[in-house]
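Format notes (please read before filing issues)

Several people have asked whether sequences and structure tokens are stored in separate files. They are not. Every record keeps both together, in the order shown below: the sequence lines, then the token lines. Line labels are part of the format and must not be stripped during preprocessing.
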Amino acid sequence: MTRIKDAFKLVPAGIKAMMALEASINASGLETSLLELVRLRASQINGCAFCIHMHVSAARAHGETEMRLHMISAWRESSLYSDRERAALAWTEALTLLVQTGAPDADYALLKTQFSEAEQVNLTMLIGSINLWNRLQVGFRADHPVDAADKPAVAA
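Then the structure lines:
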């Protein structure tokens, strides 16, 4: 059950700042497909149904394939992701699970092979941003939209 109906209306200045950060990240030059894969993977780790729904929908709208969306939780075992995507996903997991990982040197070394320093900062800001969105949505139990076609079948 939702804990706060519309948290965003309660702190408009904070949400405005978050939206400005999102606009900066979106304009950073990082590929849209990469942005959405990172947002989706962090949201999966954090169990944020609202954000998973949002970023699967956004990734589809930008031409992402169904199979790559299905396989993202097993990206290490799949050949569907580029070296650049793998570096971003490893960094995403390392920073999303920071208390467990401590941001390993190996993940950073991989990141440096695929991203410029400015891109590293933008990617890290993206990961921090999606983690904050996840905490807002999970913490306040935001409901994701449900299309009629997605509802479970009723047993006869």
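For reference, the curators noted about this record: The CA atoms of residues 129 and 139 lie 15 Å apart. The chain has one domain: 7-143.
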